[in-house]
Amino acid sequence: MRFKILATALALGAFALGLGTAQADEKLRIGVEGAYPPFSWKEADGTLKGFDIDIALALCEKMGRECDLVEQDWDGIIPALLAKKYDAIVASMSITEERKKRVDFTDKYYNTPAKFVAKEDAGFDATPAGLKGKVVGVQRGTIHQCYMEKMFPDTELKLYGTQEEVFLDLGAGRIDAQISDSIQALEGFLSKDEGKGYAFLGGDQFDLECHGEGAGIALRKGEDDLRSSFNAAIQAIRDDGTYGKINEKYFDFDIFGAGT
Amino acid sequence: MDTVIAYMPSIIDGTLMTIALAVCSILLSVVLGLLGAWAKLSGSRVAQNIGGAYTTLIRGVPDLVLMLLLFFGGQTLLNQLGDATGLWGYVEINQFAAGVLTIGFIFGAYMTETFRGAYLAIPRGQIEAGIACGMNGGLVFGRIIWPQLVRYALPSFGNNWLVLLKTTALVSVLGLQELVYNSFTAGRSTRQLFTFMFVALVMYLVLTAVSDVGLRWLDRKYSAGVRRA
After folding, report:
1. CA angle at residue A214 from A237 to A85, to 5 degrees?
2. In the beta sheet, which residues pair with residue A205?
3. From B20, B68, B91, residue closest to A19, measured CB to CB
4. pLDDT of B134-153, one tens digit each?
5. Nearest Cα residue in chain A from B31
């Protein structure tokens, strides 16, 4: 009986919390992924770490806003922004034409090239002819999927929910190659035991329509004030060296990339 | 192993969240199931149709679709409604509430059939005998129907509970930090996805094993006075 009361109280409390309170605080809520090292990951004690997280916090500080980080699964990261679960996404999201139809972007805050990874002795080239009929793994809904579909129509694509699963299947030999962000591939696979015997295949892959200008912060459409304050803050942390310090913490080269 | 121990608090938190989610959902589903069974068995044509529509419709829609619809679609609708009427600014449908509502709602449909079947298994004559002895409706329900309803419903209820327990894993796509979400986040953060998938598997096995013990105890309690084959 006591259990029943406890459980009922629990249920009622949960609903009250869930549906009852309207919140109208001034805090800026930022959506992050938390499962994309080295850009964002979760420590054992539950704290979020990574390049994206540091950049988000630095930007908040520059804008003089208090921020809450909200974790969200990648698949629901844009729907949750549109449903106002948070106000901005700082999750290594590449600026693309496709996404611009649904959200607005700030200026880029970094831009790293995409590359293929395959066995060292793969015996094929990173060209449409070389990859014809081969199976290439790619994370679903990313710029890499767009790029593969456009430039490599004869290649069989295998889509995954997360980048980690792409690496697992590459290591298991289920796919011939994979395409992803080069840093992601280096840190998440090539530099680890599982990545032994694998290497980058070919050079940087780039197509402006798919890859866009780099990773930016996504906002709901029409929030121009927020966008200009983010842009100003990005410029400010570039200028005062904060960006450089965060960059240095995670990478031994400048990941801001060419251009402004 | 060290990383698993380091992430254990987060896994335990996730497990507790999974339990809370499952318990709240099953309570909701039992309430809806009893209501549904009552509607389907009642003499009223309207109630029968509503009950029939509920079980047919809900059992035909994938859990995940309904969940995403409520969490993202429901939120957008709520926001637009608030904007249009000016009555509220932003009311959050949180992941827990969305999870409990959808899972409870879906399993309520299965529970409806469970309870309806159990009720029909009770010999009519017993209920008539109760009425003949001068019992009112409440007394007939409390003394004759309920104890037997539970006994007949238990096997199917146990089934539903075990399926429901594992269905809670779906709520991880909404970002609720339950067992699967926390295990996968830990797995991706440490780049040891397999290890943490295995941890999640063990935790689910523990939960189902404990449930099994509980269900068997309930079965014994409600089968008192029935000869075992």
Report:
1. 75
2. A114
3. B91
4. 999 899 999 999 999 999 99
5. A8
SS3 A175: coil
pLDDT computed for residue A98 by the predictor: 87
Same domain, A95 and A129: no
Query: What DSSP element (H or E) covers A137?
Result: strand A135-139
Q: Which ipTM was obtained for this model?
A: 0.76
Does A119 share its domain with A199?
yes
Q: Pairing relation of β-strands A67-71 and A28-32?
A: parallel
Q: Which helix (H) or strand (E) holds A86?
A: none
Chain-centroid distance, C-alpha A147: 16
- Based on the structure, what is the number of domains in chain B? 1
Q: Which of B24, B89, B91 sits opposite A11 (nearest CB)?
A: B24
Residue at A49 is within a domain: yes
Give the tens place of pLDDT for each residue, A41-82.
999 888 999 999 999 999 999 999 999 999 998 888 999 999
Which residues in chain A have Cβ-Cβ distances shorter than 8 Å to B103? none
Selection from A45, A42, A69, A32 nearest residue A217 by Cα: A32
Q: Are residues A107 and A119 in the same domain?
A: no
pLDDT digits (tens, 9 = 90+) for A106-135: 999 999 889 999 999 988 999 999 999 999
| Whether A201 and A121 share a structural domain | yes
Whether residue B144 lies inside any domain: the answer is yes
Same domain, A159 and A105: no
